[in-house]
């Protein structure tokens, strides 16, 4: 089967939402493609931006498609690139940034940044968009952090306070697990999203894959301890081994699947809608080991331009029109209406402070400053870390066994 036809079949099978921009002008408009992995209100919001941009000028027509997230982040985009058919505009996450840049898939966007824009973007996010060669390959625009969501009514019925420590979290998950309900929902698949949820638990126990000098430290006792804690929820049956709703969906709590769930700022709007309908969903910072400082992770999506794009200038114009211009309407709407996330531009945060002090948002704002940027590891290291988690989640391995195995594998990469 020819690769081009194979790619078409993958697209057809994996596409969860496919929206194509209507043509507003003549067929002479240059066609550029945009792929992402959104659905629901997020896909609708992207489509609205695409439509507005297409109507704003008569040179370019953006055609937008949204596909299954797992396919997008694993094989779909890289397969398209290998076949010389990469979309012009790509949605990029920290977990895929290094894979895309190492493969030469992203165009250099440095020249499209103004000095004022670079000064406005929080330094850690501009750094996350910058390659080892000093070139800026993406435009970051949002920051997402994690907390512990919970069904306040269920916890009250069981006489349980929202947990603040690891010991309390494990005890609560055990007590809240019944024949009809799990104590907690955590991600179950080997994906970048599972790693995103894992990072703060690793950091809270003073563990890491490398130390400051670049030495491999994944085999440490602290890492083994953190892995044992993470794996205990799966091994003891406090967490489901499969999910009908994604691990990023508050539906897991609202529909009674579980009483607690690790989740991000992107779940806030949906949680507050459920609360309007009689639910009582709350959130607290991620519980910590006894005596340790609270830590959460800061992820965030970015936009990039494919190095294979037929018109890098036009594609870059679109993404900077969306999220990098002086008109911040799109950023504010995306971060406060479409979903909830923190803008990475300080001026937008300063000019919209009241929006970050409403309802559940206010709780996230309280521990916003405990966030560390999501790390960017090579595809090989991320794959090993994913296997390590699966080993303690479903493979019956102890934290010590899994950490030791990972140490050997990462050292062998040198």
UniProtKB/TrEMBL annotation:
Residues 1-25 form the signal peptide. Keywords: Signal, Sugar transport, Transport. The keyword Signal applies. GO terms for cellular component: ATP-binding cassette (ABC) transporter complex, substrate-binding subunit-containing. The keyword Protein biosynthesis does not apply. It holds the Pfam family SBP_bac_8. GO terms for molecular function: maltose binding. GO terms for biological process: maltodextrin transmembrane transport; maltose transport. It comes from the Bacteria. Belongs to the bacterial solute-binding protein 1 family. This is ABC-type sugar transport system, periplasmic component.
């Amino acid at each position: 089967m020819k690769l081009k036809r194979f790619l078409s079949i993958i697209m057809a099978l994996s596409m969860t939402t496919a929206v194509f921009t209507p043509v507003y002008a003549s067929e002479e408009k240059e066609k550029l493609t945009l792929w992402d992995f959104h659905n629901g209100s997020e896909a609708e919001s992207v489509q609205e931006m695409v439509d507005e941009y297409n109507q704003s000028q008569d040179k370019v027509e953006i055609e937008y498609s949204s596909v299954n997230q797992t396919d997008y982040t694993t094989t779909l985009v890289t397969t398209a690139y290998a076949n010389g058919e990469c979309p012009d505009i790509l949605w990029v996450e920290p977990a895929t940034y290094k894979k895309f840049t190492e493969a030469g898939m992203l165009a250099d966007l440095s020249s499209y940044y103004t000095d004022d824009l670079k000064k406005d973007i929080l330094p850690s996010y501009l750094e996350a968009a910058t390659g080892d060669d000093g070139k800026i390959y993406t435009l970051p625009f949002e920051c997402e952090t994690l907390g512990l969501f919970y069904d306040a009514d269920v916890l009250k019925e069981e006489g349980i306070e929202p947990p603040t420590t690891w010991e309390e979290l494990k005890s609560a998950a055990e007590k809240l697990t019944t024949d009809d309900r799990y104590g907690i929902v955590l991600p179950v698949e080997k994906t970048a999203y599972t790693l995103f949820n894992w990072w703060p638990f690793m950091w809270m126990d003073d563990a890491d894959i490398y130390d400051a000098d670049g030495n491999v430290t994944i085999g440490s006792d602290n890492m083994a301890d953190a892995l044992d804690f993470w794996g205990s929820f799966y091994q003891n049956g406090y967490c489901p081994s499969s999910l009908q709703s994604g691990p990023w969906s508050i539906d897991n709590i609202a529909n009674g699947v579980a009483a607690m769930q690790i989740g991000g700022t992107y779940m806030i709007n949906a949680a507050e809608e459920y609360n309007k309908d009689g639910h009582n969903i709350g959130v607290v910072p991620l519980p910590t080991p006894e005596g340790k400082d609270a830590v959460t992770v800061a992820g965030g999506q970015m936009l990039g331009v494919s190095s294979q794009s037929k018109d890098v200038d036009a594609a870059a114009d679109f993404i900077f029109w969306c999220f990098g211009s002086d008109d911040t309407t799109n950023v504010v709407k995306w971060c406060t209406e479409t979903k909830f996330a923190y803008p990475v531009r300080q001026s937008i945060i300063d000019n919209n402070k009241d929006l970050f002090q409403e309802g559940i948002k206010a709780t996230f704002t309280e521990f916003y400053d405990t966030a560390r940027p999501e790390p960017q590891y090579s595809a090989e290291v991320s794959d090993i870390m994913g296997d390590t988690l699966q080993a303690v989640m479903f493979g019956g391995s102890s934290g010590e066994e899994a950490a030791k195995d990972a140490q050997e594998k990462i050292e062998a990469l040198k």
